[in-house]
Amino acid sequence: MVGDSPPGGGYVSLESQPNSPGANASLARLREWLGAEPSPKLLEHIAKSADPELALVNLTRWLGVTSNPQALLLQMEVLDRVSEVLVGLFGASQHLADLLIQNPELAGIALDPNELRRPLKVSEVVSEGRAMAASAISYRHGLDRLRFLKQRWTLPIVVNDLAGEWPEESVWMALSDLAEALINLAGTVAWKEFAKATDLPDECPIMIVGFGKLGGRELNFSSDVDLVYATDDGLDESLSQQLTRFCEMFGRALSDRMGRGSLYRVDLRLRPYGNSGPLAPTMRAIENYYRLYAEQWEIQALIRSRVMIGSPALRERWAAMRTAVCFREQLSEVQLEAMLAMKTRIEERADTHDIKRGAGGIRDVEFLVQCLQLLHGHGKPNLQVEPTLTALRELEQLGYLSHAAAHGLTAGYTFLRQFEHRCQLVGDQQTHSVPSDNSTKHRIARLMGRPSWTELNRELDMHRRTIQSLYSSILHPTTQEGSARTRVAAKSSHNASTVLPWFDSFPESEAFYESLGENEGSLARVLQIANDAPRLISEFRQSIGLTEELMSGEVEEELNSTLTFSTSGSDRELARQFLVARTRLLANWTLMRFEGVERKLTELNKALLRTCLAKLDADFNVVGLGSFGNRSMGPESDFDLLFLVENPANQATSELKAQSLLGFMNSLRRSGAPVSVDLRLRPDGSKGMLVRSYDALRAYSNTGMDTWERFAMAQARVIQGDQAITSLIAEIVAAQPLSGEALQELLDMKDRIETERVHPSEARRHLKLGPGGLSDIEWLATLGSLRLQSIDPTQFTTDRIHLLADGGLLTSDEATALTSAYGYLIDLRFRSWLLGFDSDRLPESPEKLERLGYQIGMDEPQDFAKLHNHTIDAVRAIYISALERLKA
Question: What is the model's pTM?
């Protein structure tokens, strides 16, 4: 098969497969349109698609129905990233390819990056649909216009999903919002047709409620829409009958197939009394049903209900009913047991390949989350939400789930939903099963960015085991007596719900439990990570080797200060290398508590960046700014960068390489590496070129550089380049002495940043931008260095603090206090992040504050609060006093 790859990875050239008539004919047509060979980049995108032969044939079919295939091909070669995504779509799904081929006018959207990035808004889709329906010549034509509108908006959703540009949760929300808009539009079109020859009102009096994935804003590409209709109370019998007939007509409007297919398959079985119940019951009848007759599973389903269309009065009554029925003061043990029993019956009917209903599947996560919402949702509006992941985040925030448990459920649910999406995209079917044939498995593995089905299946098994373990330990907290797992659970105490899912996710987990039970040191290290750094557990779960290093104690060994990464292999392999090294570093710090973790993390990030530059042969010069420049990067810090080239003649080539670097770094992020590049500190910000020559930067310094930009350059550090760059930066920084006016301009800017980014109520909790936070120390160190004209890019912030003492701007006691506070605040940021808290803000929750305070030796929350307030007050006082000396 053309472009097929061997199971272990690596791609075979298209030209090496002469025995595929369809592919050869398609290549010939591309040559004919171009008058030359297709570019190597285009052929590479085809070869790397999920199904290269399908991608090539569909690309050619699409170009053949457009008015100017040559122009489109040339445009694709210029827009390399768009070309890659579009070719990937053609190789992903015949259904999606047919969508583009059927609608060649959508080429403008497919090749416009701005249009592809445009977020979907219900109001805008409704406005667009109303305009289209208004020009329709018949009822059927109006519905067909809506089917085209669905195709038009499905295209950018799919493109952003396959390209990894949107998080999976955003994809589900976009699909759900599109469905809501189309249901609204179809209702309007159908009601207008239905009401033509009657005296019915202009506005449809039916309320339409979405349940299930539609209600939770979690739709798949091939989902049914679960709907329930409701009417006002007290309608006369004739009107009730008419509204029932309308609901039947509306259902057909959504589900009848035409040339463009159907809008949505409709499922009405969740209405009161199911299939035997009235199609359009009154709101009073629905309220009575849920109050008196609804089974527990129906109450659970009501959690994910959301009104699509309806009057304000009916919407308010539905919301009040949902809250009263679902979030009672107490869920009885009988009710919980009824829910668990039904879930068990559903599981028994599902086979092991069912990723929705089977053990460790999608339904386990949704069921567990809904149970916890029913148990704890009373009086907590933030927990009464419809979406699963939103509820998971709130359950963690309120302390009903540990960070490790919430992260394991979130990661597993997201992975399974993405896998489900890919299976549905390939076949355009509402499937929830692992495919059985090897070619489909291989295709789905590529669509999910994995080199082989073996690796994808390993991840699938790991996530399902984790979900199954968490589901069991939270809802069925019993274990087999006498097993090694039980003994470890007993020794783990309150950390059992974190440790058990970790090791349950490994094949032959009992051997790990035996080792943990026999080796106290191994268990102690595991428990310390579970207690102090639960955010690392997801990476330990991904790597058995890293977990074995933790158990053996190797992770405590001194870290290699000159770490390098391999430039061979895929971007996913590089991302994995980086994640393992990063986890090892943070675990080492958690266990050993050495000084300078922020410096080591910065050096690790530098090693990754230099590997990326080498891999892409990007030989331009790179300067780190911000926290990258002063070597104080935290776990969530961006890579603030500036790209330079000495010879202006090389700028065009370097600009293309810089674009490739950004694309590659984005690819690493999509593969799981927490890297984000920020180039906004370059000359002219986001409007400027990515790469500047030395002369251009010097000229910009002389004519257009703002004071704050020069201040930012004072924290620059060369990542790749020579001494000439350091000299250039020093020249630029020194070109404008820190006058009183310039100092005030910078301080005004600092005040604006803090005012705009920090709410007054959380100012004293903000570790970076609050009064007495890291920003006060770093700004003071840099401002003082500018005043003393002693800027040295190799200095750390703490070095500069002591130089200010040498220069008379600080006393030695003040320098010591600032240095100590700086270490304390850096330490808190890392500890907070590792615990799963916000790394920039101290938590409000007393329980979380107590847990964080205990990490630094404070047994009582009030003692921790006293220490923190004393520290930031001392920093702020020194900052204000030193500024007065600077102004003098």
Answer: 0.83
